[in-house]
C-alpha cells in the first residue's frame, strides 16, 4: 500500500504556530505516525479494536422517513452506533495506541460536549494510560453526565475558567499543559485542527467513515452518491467523510457549519462562511476574529460545534471550490433533531442535526449520504430542558 | 538585512553597556491595568535600572503564557487596549530605552507582516518576539522586520534539538531568548536544572547575546542567571507588581533585581 503524505500545509493553510518547546514533539509525532500507519502490528491492533471494541464497520442505513421527506434517497452513516456514541472514538483510540507506541504514560485531551473527552478516557482506560481532560466550566455545567462518565472511567476532569469557559479555552489549557509536560505526555486533540501533523493524522484516522460508506453504497445502490453532507465544527467527521470522495468529481461535498443565532448576529460558529484567515491553536485557517486579530467567542446550541476555528484542510477545500460550505442556525438544527427522532426513531446529536437540517431545507432528488456523527442522548437536556 | 538597522544597534548597545552582570529586561503587559499605568510602569522600570523593556501586546489566546500574564492580557483587552495603544506606549518608552515587543502571530498576521513591522519601527521598537512563531514559520515576518531594522528575536527551548538550535542561531537577530524551562511563563521556586546546558548550546550557534526568561522572579535567581547569560528577563513577577502595586511596585521590584545583578 502506498502511503499518502502527512501534509504540513493545505495550500496556504496549516503549519505549526506553536511555542518552540513543542516543535520537537511535533517532529516526533509526525515520524511516529508515519512509521505506525505502515506497521502491520499497529494497524492490525487498531483494526481489531475498532471491530471488536468500538463496533466498526458502522451500518449504512437507507433512511426511509428522511428520504420521503426530501424526495430523494437519504443514507445515514451510523457513527452514532459506535462505542461512546460518536465518531470521536476512531481518532481517540488511534492516538491512544500511538501514545503507547511512543512510550508516553500520560494523555491530555480537551472536550466541549464531552464526546471526545469520553472517547479519550475510554481509550486510555482500555490501554492503561493516565488521562486528564480539560473542559470549560460552562460546558461542565451543560454536559454533566459526560463529566460523570469520564470520572467513572478514571479520568481527571479539569475545569477551565478562562474566557467564555468553553471549548476554545479548553484547547488552550490543554496546549499549556502540553508545553509543560511534553516529555511524558501526548495531547490527543479531538478534531482535525491544531499544528501539523494533527490535521492530517486525525483525517487519516477518521477517513474510514468515508471509505466504509463509499464501499457500502456501491454495494447496496450500485453507484456513488450525488452528494455527501456532514457537519463541520473543527471538522473531523466531515474531513473523514469527504476525503474518500475527493477524486469523484461528480460527487458534491457539502459541509454544514453552525450559524448559531444567525450569521449576522456574531453569535455563530461559522468561520468558513464568514471568518478571515488567521492562526488559532497552532494552525493557519479560517478563524472568527476582529480586525486586530483577537479571536472571537463562537456560539452554537451544539457544544461540539461551538468553536471559532476549523481544520486547515477545510479552508483549502473551500478555496479550491471542491467543498461547498453552508450554515444552519440553532433553530433549524433543533427542529431537525426532533424531526429525525419522529421520522426515523433515531435521536441524532445536535452536531449532525445541522447536516440533516440543511438537507431538509434543500430537498434534492438523487442519493444523499449524510454522516450521522453521533447520538443525541447528551443533548436531551439542552433541547427538552428549560 | 537593511543597512540601517537602528533596532539591532540599540539592542547591541544595551547588552554591551549595562555595567552589571547581565542586562535586565523586565516584561510589562501593554495596557495593563490600563494604557497610562503601563506607560508609567515602564518609566518606573527604566528609572530603577532596566536596560531594555519587553512590552507585551495583549492577545486573546496566549498559548505560551501562564496565569499571571494571561490574566493581565485578558484584563488589558477588557480595558480597551489595542495594538495601536500599546505601540503608543512603545513610542514613549523607546525614548528612554530599547523596547522589544512581545506579540502573538495572529496579531501580526491580522495587520500583515510588512505593515506590522512598519508600525513597530515607527513606534521605535527595537525588536519583536513572537512566541508562537517558531523558526520554520518565521521567514516572512523576519524579512518584514529586517526591512524595517527591527530585530526578530527567536526563542530556544530546553527541548530544542541541536540541529534546531543551529538553525535558530544562524537566523537570529538582536539576541536569542533562552526559555529556561519546559513550560509556560510564571514564577517558579527554583531555576531549571538544565539551564546552563541550554545557554551553552545557544552560544555554540551564535555570537549574539543570550537572554534567559521564564520562571525568574527573585534577585537570587536573577543573579544566578546573570552568571551564565547576557540578559535576564523577568515577566510574571513584574506584571504581578504592576497589578498589585502599580508603577511604584514595579520600580521597587526592578530596583531589587538591578541591585542583585549589580
Strand and helix layout:
The complex is a heterodimer of chains A (386) and B (262).
Chain A: E1 9-10, E2 13-14, H1 23-36, H2 40-54, E3 60-62, H3 64-70, E4 73-78, H4 88-102, E5 106-111, H5 115-127, E6 130-136, H6 137-142, H7 144-152, E7 156-160, H8 167-181, E8 185-188, H9 198-206, H10 208-220, E9 227-231, H11 236-242, E10 252-260, H12 271-274, E11 276-280, E12 283-287, H13 312-320, E13 323-329, H14 330-344, H15 350-361, E14 367-372, H16 380-384
Parallel strand pairs in A: 4-14, 5-6, 5-8, 6-7, 9-10, 9-14, 10-13
Antiparallel strand pairs in A: 1-2, 3-4, 11-12
Chain B: H1 6-16, E1 23-29, H2 35-47, E2 53-56, H3 67-78, H4 83-93, E3 99-102, H5 105-111, H6 113-122, E4 127-129, H7 139-148, E5 151-153, E6 155-156, H8 162-170, E7 176-179, H9 195-203, E8 210-213, H10 219-228, E9 231-234, H11 236-261
Parallel strand pairs in B: 1-2, 1-9, 2-3, 3-4, 4-5, 6-7, 7-8, 8-9
Structural write-up:
The complex is a heterodimer of chains A (386) and B (262). Chain A contains 16 helices and 14 strands. Chain A is α/β, with parallel strands linked by helices. In chain A, the strands form 4 sheets. In chain A, strands 3-4-14-9-10-13 form a 6-stranded mixed beta sheet, with helices on both faces. Chain A has a 4-stranded parallel beta sheet with strand order 7-6-5-8, with helices on both faces. With 262 residues, chain B is α/β, with parallel strands linked by helices. In chain B, helix 10 (219-228) packs across helix 11 (236-261). Chain B starts with 5 loop residues before the first helix and ends with a helix. The mean pLDDT of chain B is 96. Chain A binds chain B through residues 15-25, 162-163, 168, 172, 175-176, 179-183, 276-282, 284, 287, 289, 291-295, and chain B through 59-61, 63-64, 66, 70, 74, 77, 82-83, 104-111, 131-137, 154-161, 164, 168, 179, 182-184.
Amino acid at each position: 500500500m502506498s502511503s499518502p503524505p502527512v501534509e504540513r500545509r493545505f495550500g496556504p493553510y496549516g503549519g505549526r504556530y506553536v511555542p518552540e518547546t513543542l516543535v520537537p514533539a511535533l517532529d516526533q509525532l509526525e515520524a511516529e505516525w508515519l512509521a505506525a500507519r505502515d506497521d502491520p502490528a499497529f494497524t492490525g491492533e487498531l483494526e481489531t479494536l475498532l471491530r471488536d471494541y468500538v463496533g466498526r464497520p458502522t451500518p449504512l442505513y437507507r433512511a426511509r422517513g428522511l428520504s420521503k421527506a426530501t424526495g430523494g434517497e437519504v443514507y445515514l452513516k451510523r457513527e452514532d452506533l459506535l462505542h461512546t456514541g460518536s465518531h470521536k472514538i476512531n481518532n481517540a483510540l488511534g492516538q491512544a495506541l500511538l501514545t503507547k507506541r511512543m512510550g508516553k504514560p500520560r494523555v491530555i485531551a480537551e472536550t466541549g460536549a464531552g464526546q471526545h473527552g469520553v472517547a479519550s478516557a475510554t481509550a486510555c482506560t482500555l490501554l492503561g494510560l493516565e488521562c486528564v481532560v480539560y473542559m470549560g466550566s460552562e460546558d461542565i455545567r451543560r454536559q454533566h453526565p459526560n463529566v460523570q462518565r469520564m470520572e467513572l472511567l478514571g479520568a481527571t476532569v479539569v475545569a477551565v475558567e478562562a474566557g467564555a469557559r468553553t471549548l476554545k479555552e479548553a484547547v488552550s489549557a490543554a496546549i499549556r499543559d502540553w508545553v509543560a509536560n511534553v516529555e511524558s505526555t501526548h495531547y490527543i486533540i479531538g478534531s482535525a485542527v491544531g499544528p501539523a501533523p494533527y490535521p492530517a493524522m486525525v483525517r487519516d484516522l477518521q477517513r474510514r467513515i468515508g471509505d466504509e460508506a463509499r464501499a457500502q453504497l456501491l454495494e447496496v445502490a450500485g453507484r456513488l452518491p450525488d452528494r455527501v453532507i456532514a457537519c463541520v465544527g473543527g471538522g473531523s467527521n466531515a474531513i473523514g467523510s469527504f476525503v474518500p470522495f475527493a477524486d469523484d468529481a461528480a460527487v458534491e461535498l457539502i459541509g454544514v457549519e453552525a450559524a448559531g443565532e444567525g450569521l449576522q448576529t456574531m453569535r455563530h460558529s461559522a468561520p468558513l462562511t464568514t471568518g478571515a484567515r488567521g492562526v488559532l491553536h497552532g494552525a493557519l485557517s479560517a478563524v472568527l476574529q476582529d480586525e486586530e486579530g483577537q479571536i472571537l467567542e463562537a456560539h452554537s446550541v451544539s457544544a461540539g460545534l461551538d468553536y471559532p476555528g476549523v481544520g486547515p484542510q477545510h479552508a483549502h477545500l473551500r478555496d479550491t471550490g471542491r467543498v461547498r460550505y453552508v450554515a444552519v442556525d440553532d433553530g433549524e438544527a433543533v427542529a431537525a433533531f426532533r424531526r429525525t427522532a419522529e421520522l426515523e426513531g433515531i435521536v441524532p446529536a445536535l452536531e449532525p442535526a445541522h447536516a440533516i437540517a440543511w438537507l431538509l431545507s434543500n430537498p434534492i432528488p438523487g442519493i444523499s449520504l449524510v454522516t450521522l456523527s453521533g447520538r443525541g442522548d447528551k443533548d436531551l437536556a439542552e433541547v427538552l430542558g428549560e | 538585512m537593511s543597512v540601517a538597522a537602528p533596532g539591532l544597534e540599540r539592542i547591541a548597545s544595551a547588552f554591551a553597556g549595562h555595567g552589571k552582570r547581565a542586562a535586565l529586561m523586565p516584561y510589562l503587559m501593554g495596557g495593563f491595568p490600563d494604557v497610562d499605568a503601563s506607560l508609567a510602569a515602564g518609566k518606573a522600570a527604566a528609572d530603577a535600572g532596566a536596560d531594555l523593556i519587553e512590552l507585551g501586546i495583549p492577545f486573546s489566546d496566549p498559548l505560551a503564557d501562564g496565569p499571571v500574564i494571561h490574566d493581565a492580557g485578558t484584563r488589558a483587552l477588557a480595558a480597551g487596549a489595542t495594538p495601536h495603544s500599546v505601540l503608543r506606549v512603545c513610542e514613549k518608552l523607546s525614548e528612554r530605552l530599547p523596547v522589544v515587543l512581545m506579540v502573538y502571530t495572529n496579531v501580526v498576521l491580522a495587520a500583515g507582516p510588512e505593515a506590522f513591522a512598519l508600525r513597530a519601527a515607527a513606534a521605535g521598537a527595537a525588536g519583536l518576539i513572537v512566541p508562537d512563531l517558531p523558526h520554520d514559520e518565521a521567514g516572512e515576518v523576519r524579512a518584514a522586520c529586517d526591512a524595517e531594522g527591527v530585530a526578530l528575536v527567536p526563542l530556544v527551548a530546553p527541548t530544542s534539538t541541536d540541529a534546531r538550535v543551529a538553525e535558530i542561531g544562524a537566523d537570529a537577530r538582536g539576541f536569542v531568548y533562552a526559555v529556561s524551562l519546559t513550560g509556560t511563563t510564571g514564577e517558579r521556586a527554583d531555576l531549571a536544572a538544565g539551564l546552563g546546558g541550554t545557554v551553552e548550546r545557544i552560544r555554540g550557534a551564535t555570537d549574539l547575546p543570550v537572554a534567559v526568561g521564564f520562571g525568574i522572579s527573585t534577585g537570587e535567581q536573577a543573579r544566578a542567571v546573570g552568571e551564565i547569560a547576557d540578559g535576564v528577563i523577568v515577566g510574571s513577577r513584574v506584571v504581578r507588581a504592576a497589578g498589585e502595586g502599580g508603577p511604584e511596585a514595579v520600580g521597587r521590584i526592578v530596583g531589587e533585581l538591578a541591585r542583585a545583578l549589580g
